[in-house]
Automatic annotation (TrEMBL):
The keyword Isomerase applies. Residues 22-256 form the Xylose isomerase-like TIM barrel domain. This is Sugar phosphate isomerase/epimerase. GO terms for molecular function: isomerase activity. It holds the Pfam family AP_endonuc_2. Keywords: Isomerase.
């Protein structure tokens, strides 16, 4: 199985510290990292690539929520200029991402929170228009875009897997797929089994976090049942630990040992 770890921005830590983290990940059989990103990193690309190569790791995806947080832009923004900036910044990151191969572009918070009184139909049309441009641009680099169902505390629509899967089906973009996250599913889904079974064939990426948003198995989420569902659904992609747990050797090791014990 391919296991990845969600990390801070590359610029957040010195390369010496990244080397320690990469060593821990490599020792525990991880395939790579999934950093948050707000724009092109200041750390030289060749230095990042060299370090990744040394530990046989890849960047499996970029979490684009960093763009929304750092620059206060979103695809659903009522302002056309803000939406244009959101698209431009996203596509700049796509171009940058291509340096590292074909990491997935992961879209959650970039959808944007609905403002008071904002029409949901119009907001979704804005998202559709932005995603069409971004998916087409990503396709020129053969890069996949994955859209995430996010819990209601962070986005006040597109909260369930069914919501997002239905929206993706209306888009008709071959490189646009579904990102599911166990933490958000725990908060929003009445039935994890029904949610997963309804989107077989649409899942492009999976985030793992327990019910407490920490590494498994520290909460109450039923991971054994979840992994059986994913196996039955034919999912063979990357599983990324995206949690609030510290990026320590102990947590990296514990998460890997637990997940690998469930996914054969």
């Amino acid at each position: 199985m391919k296991l990845s770890w969600a990390t801070p921005e590359i610029d957040a830590l010195p390369l010496e510290q990244w080397e320690r983290v990469f060593a821990w990940l490599a020792e525990n059989g991880y395939a790579g990292i999934e950093p948050i990103i707000s724009g092109v990193y200041k750390t030289p690309e060749d230095e990042i690539l060299s370090l990744l190569d040394r530990y046989q790791l890849k960047i499996t995806g970029f979490r684009t929520g960093g763009i929304a947080k750092a620059h206060h832009v979103a695809f659903n923004d009522p302002g056309a200029e803000v939406r244009l900036e959101a698209v431009d910044r996203f596509n700049q990151v796509v171009q940058y991402a291509a340096v590292y191969g074909k990491p997935k572009m992961l879209v959650g918070l970039m959808q944007g929170m609905l403002a008071d009184g904002q029409d949901i139909v119009i907001a979704k049309e804005h998202i559709r228009e932005c995603l069409e441009i971004c998916c087409d641009y990503a396709q020129t680099y053969a890069i996949e875009v994955d859209l995430e169902a996010v819990n209601h505390n962070e986005i006040n629509y597109h909260n369930t897997v069914a919501d997002v899967a239905g929206f993706i089906r209306t888009m008709g973009k071959d490189n646009l797929h579904l990102l599911i996250d166990t933490y958000h599913m725990h908060l929003e889904e009445s039935s994890i089994e029904q949610a997963v079974n309804a989107v077989k064939g649409q899942i492009g990426h999976v985030h793992l976090a327990d019910s407490n948003h920490m590494i498994p198995p520290t909460g109450s989420f039923d991971f054994p049942a979840f992994f059986r569902l994913l196996s039955d659904a034919g999912y063979h992609g990357t599983y990324t630990l995206e949690t609030m747990s510290d990026m320590t050797e102990e947590n990296i090791t514990q998460a890997s040992q637990y997940v690998r014990g469930l996914v054969k």
